[in-house]
Design a protein that fits this description.
The protein is mainly beta and 125 residues long. It is 0% helix and 52% strand.
Length: 125
């Protein structure tokens, strides 16, 4: 597995990345490990232990899909996996928006959302 560590800095209703995420068509098997800073919501513990995560991706076409391949890695990182289904079609080339939802436990009764971030899929040669 290939990994990339990126910090999501949240300021009010905006989120920015410490490093751009740029991939190419047919890239796969990549774990993006997000550390979140400036997101001042507290959970049962001081870290993300026990927190459940999922999200939504808006493709360049405007289509919104659910993302269920995200988990908490360690205690404070959100692991997002780029697999072949996200980069294999021509319509997936372009800028994507990712919005992450955090739940305080598996019941998903309580949720808070991180402002959207973007990543790009480019066409290979």
């Amino acid at each position: 597995m290939i990994t990339k560590n990126v910090t999501i800095k949240v300021t009010d209703d905006k989120a920015t990345l410490s490093d751009k995420i740029i991939l190419y068509q047919h890239d796969k098997g990549i774990e993006i490990l997000f550390t979140v800073s400036g997101f001042n919501y507290k959970f049962k513990k001081d870290n993300y232990a026990g927190v459940v995560v999922d999200g939504k991706i808006q493709k360049p076409s405007g289509t919104v899909i659910s993302v269920d391949n995200m988990v908490i890695s360690g205690t404070n990182k959100i692991k997002f996996i780029i697999d072949e289904t996200m980069t294999d079609e021509l319509e997936e080339i372009g800028t994507h928006k990712l919005q992450i939802h955090l739940y305080d436990d598996e019941t998903k009764a309580n949720r808070v959302t991180i402002p959207p971030i973007t990543f790009e899929i480019k066409q290979q040669l």
